[in-house]
Amino acid sequence: MNRLQEKKLKIIGRLERINFPEWDLFDIDAKIDTGAYTSSLHCHHIEPFSKEGRSYVRFNLLDPSHETYNEKLFELPVHATKNIKSSNGTTEQRYIIKTAIRLLDKEFKAELSLADRSEMRYPVLLGRKFINKRFVVDVSKKYLSDNN
After folding, report:
1. What are phi and psi of 128, to 5 degrees?
2. CB crowding 92-110: b at 16 or more within 10 Å, else e
3. Quick check: helix, strand or coil at residue 111?
4. Looking at the domain assignment, is residue 104 inside a domain?
5. Residue 145 or residue 86, greater confidence
6. For position 30, what pLDDT does the model report?
7. 66 within a domain of the structure (yes/no)
8. Is residue 40 assigned to a domain?
9. How far apart are CA 92 and CA 89, in angstroms?
10. Is the dihedral of CA 124, 126, 130, 134 positive or negative?
11. Would 144 be classed as within a structural domain?
12. How many domains does the chain have?
């Protein structure tokens, strides 16, 4: 990438607040992780099922202790399944779904793996696949999206 292209990329910090407009979820903390390829989303009660011959997954977002938790059960088509190595080094097969993420007043389509991130500090992790060619990460900053 040359300097001219870099200048067009928006700067984000190591932590940002994002929105999921399709799900009416707003101001969710996301950790920006350039070490992770795939983005992930914390949920529980992850259950695969079939509907009209297609693979679907149902789940609850976040934890009941999270301030925006609403007990809503989501049912989405499975975009893919993927073996993903977690931060503790174990590999697990995860369901990948697609949804919109709003960051810096712009909406982006994103692929997210569904994972139990209850032991993690932030419910969403945005990896390189989402960041690439969209943002530059300034690790000395956080919540730059709050300034927009």
Report:
1. -60, -35
2. eebbbbebebbbbeeeeeb
3. strand
4. yes
5. 145
6. 95
7. yes
8. yes
9. 10
10. positive
11. no
12. 1
Identify the residue whose tokens are 């914390």.
42
- Give SS3 for 116: coil
Q: Report the candidate in 27, 32, 20, 17 with the shortest Cα–Cα distance to residue 143.
A: 17
The reported pLDDT for the residue numbered 4 is 47
The domain that holds 115 is classified in CATH as: 2.40.70.10
Share of the chain above pLDDT 90, in %: 64
pLDDT band at 85 (very low <50, low <70, confident <90, very high): confident
DSSP state of 104: T
Q: How far is CA 99 from each of CA 19, 71, 139, 147, rounded to the nearest angstrom?
A: 11, 19, 26, 24
Kindly state the tokens that stand for 49: 């099922």
For 35-82, write each residue's pLDDT tens digit. Answer: 999 999 989 889 999 999 999 999 988 766 666 656 788 999 999 999
- What's the full length of the chain, in residues? 148
Q: What are the phi and psi torsion angles at 20 (to 5°)?
A: -115, 85
Q: Which residues contact 23 (CB under 8 A, 6 or more apart)?
A: 61, 72, 74, 99
Structural domain of 96: 17-139
Name the one residue in this structure whose structure tokens are 């390829």. 37
Contact 39, 53 (CB under 8 A): no
